[in-house]
Amino acid sequence: MFSLSEENYLKAILHLQKTSKSGVSTNAIAEEMQTKASSVTDMVKKLSEKDLVIYKKYQGVYLSDTGRKTALQIVRKHRLWEVFLVDKLSFSWDEVHEVAEQLEHIKSDKLITELDKFLEFPKRDPHGDPIPDAKGNFHVANKTLLSNLSKGERGTLVGVKDTSTEFLKYLDKNNIALGKTIEVLDKEEFDESMLIQTGGKTLRISPMVTVNIFIKQ
Amino acid sequence: MFSLSEENYLKAILHLQKTSKSGVSTNAIAEEMQTKASSVTDMVKKLSEKDLVIYKKYQGVYLSDTGRKTALQIVRKHRLWEVFLVDKLSFSWDEVHEVAEQLEHIKSDKLITELDKFLEFPKRDPHGDPIPDAKGNFHVANKTLLSNLSKGERGTLVGVKDTSTEFLKYLDKNNIALGKTIEVLDKEEFDESMLIQTGGKTLRISPMVTVNIFIKQ
DNA sequence: ATTTATTTTTAGACAAAACTAAAAATAAAA
DNA sequence: TTTTATTTTTAGTTTTGTCTAAAAATAAAT
Ligand SMILES: [Mn+2]
Ligand SMILES: [Mn+2]
Ligand SMILES: [Mn+2]
Ligand SMILES: [Mn+2]
């Protein structure tokens, strides 16, 4: 259907449009895809030809309905494979992304239907992100950043914003994990750092950490 | 490491060199890969540059040690994925090939190690073909074609030579399956057709069938 | 409202992997 | 052993996706 490259562009645009009211800029896509702006312009023209995006010169790019649907199916595959790797093949959550980046491009409807069934229809991936269903629908959790909590408040860790290996390994090292309760024992006004309690331990974390953890209260 | 195309060429050459004492010809590769001879020459030069094959103009091509090793790892991945699809995702043996052709190119050592473990180190794929281990070693079964059996002889079906969907579906339809016992009730001299008994049924099969079934006596 | 800076697009080039058409080498036939 | 047929290689294109460098458009600053 679509090339590996086209699929990656669609996914990148889907990701970027969540954090911008207007169209997604050429430079933003280039940054996200680790490529050059001129390459982005070329590809965006091609996607526009195929009616996967709406594009007017210098005006940024928007996903069309089919473009959005296609992108959501790639995301679905990516996240289902991540669940597979963690639940069945004992990967840790910081090891799955690279492999899922490859697996998400395998073309087979039956494969993904059966994988979903085999995994017992998971609703979230190992990082807490929702898994779209076959029609592209998914449940958006009402979550907030840990940085928004005040002293004395508590909640459950339901997701991470930064999914880099470095960050995830840092969390592992400090016993901070998905599903665990976090309580804000203290919040330093000066640097916005927090003293938290989780997994039976008390530790101080910097704002770089608190703005990358999603909490459900 | 190697491109998808390079990997497919190596696999094709590995496959072809089993049935030819001398070097594998350009035309044979072209036929196997559904491409043109000129394309093969180009790629063979490239593989030769990378020391994956030994190639002298007009003399055919041979796999080098690293070429053979690489090809065997692709075969290993292909067959492990086929086992996964049949054993875990309820694919039938005639549906797996196309998907395995894609999955065999996923690059991750951990993935294949863990998959092997998850499947409990299978020795053969759903078509009875041996699965090379991480070092490229595999067990060659002493099997013979059903067509070589005489009236009265029997054996177990341990493999198929033709793995096309059409052939496999024909076998399914007639209750002929891997692991089942087959007894030759009669052999017609004139057209080499056979009357066989398997799965509690008696049926007559043509030589097109008998030369594509491997038996262990 | 100009000037300056930034972003985006165009123009031209390149590498990978395929193709067609023609030339060269090898194999088969006369 | 010539002649003919087949196989293989070369030469020149094409497509996809990328790049650099330069031009054009938009945004920011004076
Ligand atoms: Mn991921
Ligand atoms: Mn994820
Ligand atoms: Mn196969
Ligand atoms: Mn097989």
Spans where pLDDT lies below 50 across 5 or more residues of chain A: none
User: How would you sum up the major sheet of chain A?
Assistant: 6 strands, antiparallel
- Oligomer designation: homodimer
Which fold name corresponds to the CATH topology of one domain in chain A? SH3 type barrels
Question: Beta-strand percentage of chain A?
Answer: 15-25%
Q: Whole-number average pLDDT of chain A?
A: 97
| Overall radius of gyration of chain A | 19 Å
CATH superfamily caption of one domain in chain A: Ferrous iron transport protein A (FeoA)
Order of helices and strands of chain A: HHHEEHHHEEHEEEHE
Q: Which molecules other than protein and nucleic acid are bound?
A: manganese (II) ion
**Tally of DSSP β-strands of chain A:** 8
* Distance between the first and last residues' Cα of chain A: 42 Å
Largest interface: A-B, 19 and 19 residues
**Main sheet: strand order of chain A:** 3-8-4-5-6-7
Q: Which outline of chain A best applies?
A: globular
CATH architectural type of one domain in chain A: Roll
Helical segment count of chain A: 8
